[in-house]
């Protein structure tokens, strides 16, 4: 597995964990982030890289920083 694939899987895992912590379904997160439910599904599975604007929408909808989604680190 490549570094890029591992990175995408890490991002997907953090998205899924945060979504579940907030009690959101994939559909509810998609609506909140103004993306499709299929996009959320692919993102959580680490199947597709996100454009920066979609990463920002997801981070905002999940009430975390883009840094957290990308790295898992909380940066003040």
Commentary on this structure:
This protein is mostly helical. Helix content is 70%, strand content 0%. Helix 2 crosses helix 4 (52-62). The longest helix is centred in the first third of the chain and has 19 residues, at 3-21. The protein is globular, with a radius of gyration of 11 Å. The relative contact order is 0.18. The mean pLDDT is 94.
Number of helices: 5
Helical proportion, percent range? 55-70%
How does the helix and strand content classify structurally? mainly alpha
- What is the end-to-end distance? 32 Å
Shape: globular
Profile the largest sheet: none
Low-confidence stretches: none
Query: SSE order in H/E notation?
Result: HHHHH
How many DSSP E strands?
Answer: 0
Q: Rounded to an integer, what's the Rg over CA atoms? A: 11 Å
Provide a short characterization of the protein structure:
This protein is mainly alpha-helical. It is 70% helix and 0% strand. The longest helix has 19 residues, at 3-21.
Name the features:
0% strand; 76 residues; 5 helices
Secondary structure: elements and pairs:
Blueprint: H1 3-21, H2 26-33, H3 37-45, H4 52-62, H5 66-71
Helix pairs in contact: 1-3, 2-3, 2-4
């Amino acid at each position: 597995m490549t570094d890029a694939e591992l990175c995408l899987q890490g991002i997907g895992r953090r998205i899924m964990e945060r979504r579940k912590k907030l009690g959101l379904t994939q559909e509810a997160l998609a609506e909140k982030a103004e993306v499709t439910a299929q996009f959320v599904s692919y993102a959580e599975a680490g199947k597709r890289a996100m454009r920066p604007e979609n990463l920002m929408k997801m981070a905002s909808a999940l009430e975390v920083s883009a840094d957290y989604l990308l790295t898992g680190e909380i940066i003040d």
